Amino acid sequence: MTEILPRAQWRLLRHAPASGTRNMAVDDAILELARKGEAPPTLRLYDWAPGTLTLGLGQPLADVDSARLAANGWGIVRRPTGGRAILHIDELTYSVIGPNDEPRLAGGVLESYRRISGALMRSLKVLGLRVEQQTGHQLPGADQGPVCFEVPSDYEITLGGKKLIGSAQARRKGGVLQHGSLPLYGDIARITEALVYPGQAEREESAARVRQRAATAEEGLGRTPTYAEAAAAFIEGFAEMLNIDLIEGELSAEEAAAAADWETQRYASTAWMERA
């Protein structure tokens, strides 16, 4: 039976490309205020500058080849969500944030993840992609080796059997954050240039596996989609599938101040990066 969600208003945030520490701090600041009822349910769309490697909450920093990362000019940050490494470059990133009593976010991890996955499916079809929903047996963001895009999880989305969107969810008392990445174009295996391997042969083998198991939107469309085109598709797909009016807005003064604090005290700190 199709779930009927009551009509609601959500805030839409469209942010310019920012550093990894800034992007994670903004997501966390919204979550902290939303869980206390001081920020509205939010769909946030954003990008990264420079390209940034994110590590899952419990992923060892030892997985990262710092010299190669620096040589490529990429940043690094640890996410507040679980899962494994993602290289954020040439992509659209989304975050869904709100209180856990919002009907679209209520219930357990898989229940809320399923609703959001439906919105993602619709968004990708609006973009013109022929996608399917994975029915595996892993929680979103579960550990599965160093590269997030190698293995789909329950309710994640595939294109021709390849993982297309990598997502993870965090729960904080009273609040829910789910964020994820849609690679738009480029070599999906570039991430292997930022991770540690015993030798070059193992690095190349890993890159080949990633290309076999993960895809970009460009592969499915046969052309290069723009960020703006993908963002418009997400706005339409989320509004339709979640039965919401998306009202464009900005961070509140409280959110902006909290984001600055989160960035300084957590995401830019050595202690946070070295916690695992």
Structural domain tally: 1
- Tell me what portion of residues adopts beta-strand conformation: 15-25%
Low-confidence stretches: 139-143
**Order of helices and strands, N to C?**
EHEEHEEEHEEEEEHHHEHH
Which superfamily, in CATH terms, is the homologous superfamily? Bira Bifunctional Protein, Domain 2
Number-wise, the strands total 12
CATH topology (level 3) name: BirA Bifunctional Protein, domain 2
Give the terminus-to-terminus CA distance.
42 Å
Largest sheet: 6 strands, mixed
* Structural class assignment: alpha/beta
**Could you tell me the radius of gyration in angstroms?**
18 Å
Widest sheet, order of strands: 10-11-6-2-1-12
Helix content estimate: 25-40%
Counted by DSSP, the helix tally is 8
In the CATH scheme, the class would be Alpha Beta
Globally, the shape reads globular
Report on the architecture of this protein.
The chain is of the alpha/beta class. It has a single domain (8-273), classed as Bira Bifunctional Protein, Domain 2 (BirA Bifunctional Protein, domain 2, 2-Layer Sandwich). It has helices spanning 20-34, 66-71, 109-127, 200-213, 217-221, 227-242, 253-267, 270-273, and strands spanning 8-14, 42-46, 52-55, 75-78, 86-88, 91-99, 132-133, 157-159, 162-163, 166-172, 175-183, 244-248. The strands form three sheets. A six-stranded mixed sheet has the order 10-11-6-2-1-12, with helices on both faces. Strands 4-3-5 form a three-stranded mixed sheet, with helices on one face. The protein has a three-stranded antiparallel sheet with strand order 7-8-9. The model is unreliable at 139-143 (pLDDT under 50).
